[in-house]
Design brief:
With 229 residues, the chain is an all-alpha fold. The chain contains eleven helices and no strands. The chain has one domain: Urease accessory protein UreF, CATH 1.10.4190.10. Helix 1 packs parallel to helix 8, helix 3 packs parallel to helix 10 and helix 4 packs parallel to helix 6. The model has no long low-confidence stretch (mean pLDDT 94). GO terms for molecular function: nickel cation binding.
Length: 229
């Protein structure tokens, strides 16, 4: 992977990327409110479960397929996997987040100097798929910039995990040092999660995260909230 591809990947996974990731807690706010998550160990257990049941089993393998569809200019496959990802979101809050991030990332890509040369950004069918999920724009950009697929998945995985730890730091509240220790505990297992995700067959892709779904649905009507629903 070239130096420019590496640094463009860093831009895509940066917390400063203006796609609104910091405004959502994916149910964690309610989980903290009701006492499911009280400290750093609880955060680790919560995120470890989501890595196994959702991110590694759904987002990463779908991202890989969107990447390949982008490389092959296969609109049908690209749209199928964008629709599939959105269909697995179990609450209106999670679906709204997915679409909001997708639309925001598309707007970011639109403003790039090279955007006029990307036919996907000029065709409505591609834009409809890009608006479904952040993963679609992420995959398109990585394919266009020749970011190595495994590194793209590693980058997305780290970005998701870092954002969720930042949410926990704000909500519990968790000290910055405790947040860093949570991230450190995951560092040895993340590469294996990516490799497992890349090896999944189409029929094995899916998500089963009932605790997150319950927390997200209850967060939609939570009386006092820091994060969007």
């Amino acid at each position: 992977m070239s130096n420019s591809a590496f640094f463009r990947l860093q831009q895509l996974i940066s917390p400063s990327l203006p796609i609104g990731a910091f405004t959502y807690s994916q149910g964690m706010e309610w989980a903290v409110e009701c006492g499911w998550i009280k400290d750093a160990d609880d955060v680790y257990v919560w995120l470890d479960g989501l890595l196994e049941s959702s991110v590694g089993a759904l987002e990463l393998p779908v991202l890989a397929r969107l990447y390949h569809a982008s490389q092959q200019q296969d609109l049908a496959a690209f749209s199928h996997w964008a629709d599939t990802l959105l269909a697995w979101r179990e609450t209106s809050e999670l679906r709204a987040e997915e679409c909001q991030r997708g639309q925001a990332l598309t707007m970011v890509l639109d403003k790039l100097p090279e955007a006029a040369g990307w036919p996907e950004l000029q065709q409505q069918e591609w834009r409809d798929a890009l608006a479904q999920t952040q993963l679609a724009g992420f995959a398109l950009a990585c394919a266009r910039w020749h970011v190595d697929l495994e590194q793209a998945l590693n980058g997305y995985l780290w970005s998701w995990l870092e954002n969720m730890v930042i949410v926990a730091v704000k909500l519990i509240p968790l000290g910055q040092s405790d947040g860093q220790r949570v991230l450190y505990r995951f560092s040895d297992q993340l590469a294996a999660i990516t490799k497992q995700a890349m090896a999944l067959d189409d029929d094995d892709i899916g998500s089963s995260s009932p605790a997150m779904a319950i927390a997200s649905s209850l967060h939609e009507t939570q009386y006092c909230r820091l994060f969007r629903s």
